[in-house]
Design brief:
Elements lengths: L8 E7 L5 H12 L4 E3 L8 E8 L6 H5 L3 E9 L1 E3 L8 E4 L7 H11 L2 E5 L8 E2 L2 E2 H6 L9 E14 L4 E8 L5 H12 L3 E11 L2 E2 L4 E2 L11 H7 L4 E3 L3 H5 L4 E2 L7 E5 L5 E9 L2 E7 L17
Parallel strand pairs: 1-14, 3-12, 15-17
Antiparallel strand pairs: 1-3, 2-3, 4-11, 4-12, 5-6, 7-10, 8-9, 10-11, 12-13, 16-19, 17-18, 18-19
Length: about 300
């Protein structure tokens, strides 16, 4: 394990139903007494499961964790459509229930397996249009043009159909930016029915797993994963550099036999010192300093845009 300060790093939290992601991280912030806190991917209040929480300098690596694929277990409620895309919303449309054929269901799911498509985000989402979040337009009952986004359904697996409860259960691994609420409606459309999300659990984010997460009420300092370990687990490029002072001064460095666009520089104690960006041939420039305040000042660079 890294010897870096335990206040810098990440936590894997099992988010309970009914709380926003922000409410969860504020509870943790107060409990652990951290200065800065964030998370790598929002979960709606209805959703449960893995929330990757970033602490102090850990917030500076959010962009490198946000890009990871996400895995979910989903229950979709058939024959209704809501304004929010889940059962907490207002029912906008409803059709008479009927017993579906499993071959129709399986065929629909198979069509989304390994599928790249243009997905329209739900109108109740935090995506901004003209500086305003979509859910703000929706609450004000204002019309707004929603632009689709390219998403990838890496893998999807139909698990169960229950005619009595009018539900379908499935698991999915999808790219960053995929809205499961939209995916459920798209799958339903493929089957010729309506549907909305009834239950949603995130089980994976990159190489982080829900099985390794802790409950909010049980979280402790010992549960913090160091920045080095978090990056290593998610296969980010790490390189030990022996001239620490050059890194702390934000000087460009020469790295041979590497072509990664970005490299995380570490010291011999596995402290993550900085993110360096490839700028040409073997030269890398400091993108952002990541050491704790006790170790020295953070360099300023044109690449520091976080």
């Amino acid at each position: 394990m890294s010897t870096t300060m335990l206040n810098d790093g990440i936590l894997l939290i099992d988010k309970p139903v009914g709380k926003t992601s922000n409410q969860v991280i504020q509870i943790i912030k107060k409990k652990l007494g951290v200065n800065k806190i964030g998370h790598a991917g929002t979960l709606d209040p209805l959703a449960t499961g893995l929330l990757v929480v970033l602490l102090n300098n850990g917030t500076k690596i959010s962009d490198y964790l946000l890009t990871a694929d996400k895995g979910y277990d989903v229950t979709m409620k058939l024959f209704i459509k809501t304004d929010s895309g889940d059962i907490t919303g207002k029912i906008m449309e409803e059709i008479a229930p009927f017993k579906m054929k499993k071959k129709v269901i399986k065929k629909a799911f198979e069509s989304f397996n390994g599928f790249i498509y243009e997905q329209y985000p739900p109108k109740y989402s935090a995506i901004k249009v003209n500086g305003k979040k979509l859910y703000e337009y929706a609450r004000a009952e204002q019309e707004v043009q929603i632009t689709p986004r390219t998403v990838t359904i890496q893998a999807i697996k139909f698990k169960n159909y229950n005619h009595a409860t009018q539900t379908i259960q499935f698991s999915v691994l999808c790219s960053k930016g995929t809205y499961v609420r939209s995916l459920v409606e798209d799958i339903a459309d493929k089957m010729g029915v309506l549907a909305t999300v009834e239950k949603l659990t995130r089980v994976q984010s990159g190489n982080f797993k829900l099985a390794d997460a802790v409950k909010v009420e049980d979280v402790d300092q010992k549960d913090i994963i160091s920045m080095y370990d978090a990056l290593f687990i998610n296969k980010q490029p790490l390189l030990m550099y022996h001239y620490d002072e050059e890194i702390r001064q934000g000087k460009p460095i020469v790295i041979i036999n590497h072509s990664d666009p970005n490299i995380f520089i570490i010291d011999k104690h596995k402290n993550v010192l900085a993110i360096y960006k490839h700028i040409g041939k073997h030269v890398y420039a400091c993108q952002r300093g990541l050491w704790s305040n006790e170790q020295g000042p953070t360099p300023t660079s044109e690449g520091d845009k976080y």
